[in-house]
UniProtKB/TrEMBL annotation:
Pfam families linked: GPW_gp25 (PF04965)
Protein name: IraD/Gp25-like domain-containing protein
InterPro entries documented for this protein: IraD/Gp25-like
The IraD/Gp25-like domain, residue ranges: 28-117
Family matches, as SUPFAM superfamilies: gpW/gp25-like (SSF160719)
Length: 131
């Protein structure tokens, strides 16, 4: 592989190779994108052996969406990525409500892979359930 220095890990979500039953792997930029999604999916405190791993956006599930909440969510995503994914530089994080679905936010992340200087976008849907 040309970019094998970027890393390799279990595919997310975890799956098996149909041909031989071994764990499916992802590598390079795909591995990085999946690692970012794992960070966003994981609420802080969810992992017993690493309670500070994850992203604090889950703390905002019952918040009323406004400019201040969006700014706090953007900062939470940026901080989590800075701490847990050293292979990237976060260029921007934008939290916007999706107009067609009430309670759904679209978190758009622009990032650069440090070792290759390639830029990527990831859009993460996040659902609010206002209390």
């Amino acid at each position: 592989m040309a970019n094998s220095f970027l890393g390799k890990g279990w595919k997310f979500p975890v799956s098996l190779e149909p041909s031989n039953g071994t764990f499916a792997l992802s590598a390079d930029e795909t591995d990085i994108r999946e690692a970012i999604r794992i960070i966003l999916f994981t609420a802080k405190g969810e992992r017993v052996m690493r309670p500070d791993f994850g992203c604090g956006i889950h703390d905002y599930v019952f918040e009323t969406m406004g400019v201040a909440t969006a700014a706090r969510m953007e900062a939470s995503v940026r901080d989590a990525l800075m701490r847990w994914e050293p292979r990237i530089e976060t260029l921007s994080v934008d939290v916007q409500p999706e107009r067609s679905t009430a309670g759904k936010l679209m978190i758009t992340i622009r990032y650069r892979v440090r070792s290759t200087n390639n830029e990527f976008n990831l859009v993460y849907p996040f659902y609010l359930r206002e209390g």
